[in-house]
Design a protein that fits this description.
Elements lengths: L1 E7 L6 H15 L6 H22 L5 E7 L3 E7 L15 H21 L2 E7 L2 E9 L8
Antiparallel strand pairs: 1-2, 2-3, 3-5, 4-5
Length: 143
Amino acid sequence: MATVELRFSALPEHVRTARLVAAAVARRAGVDEAVLDEVRLAVGEACSRAVGLHESHGIAAPVRVVLIEDEKTFSIEVGDGVSGPGAAGGAEAEGAAEAETEGEDEMGLAVISGLVDDVEVTSGESGGLIRMSWPANPAPVLP
């Protein structure tokens, strides 16, 4: 099992780099060429969502992207630093901005669910995590 980990500052301009890295690692893992656009789009949505959450919650920690190659599966985990379901806090002045962010968040998750058959979204004390998986057929290693 091979793993590549990418961490980047929660800035929108870094999302493109995450998409490019994910596509390159997916190709190497043996993900079908016809699916690579879906991988790029799903990673872009997940990373954009994480960047937005970091910005709206004032989190300085980097966004985490972990690319995992298994024998028959290629998985991507995109983690944010927003912990727990009620992590938005209780500041009333931020209510409208948080409602807008929530709507964008739900839209991003809907797009990801439409692109990826195997997707799991979790949230815990260490932050949120989107795990996406695709079938892979790695090329045999030549001696």
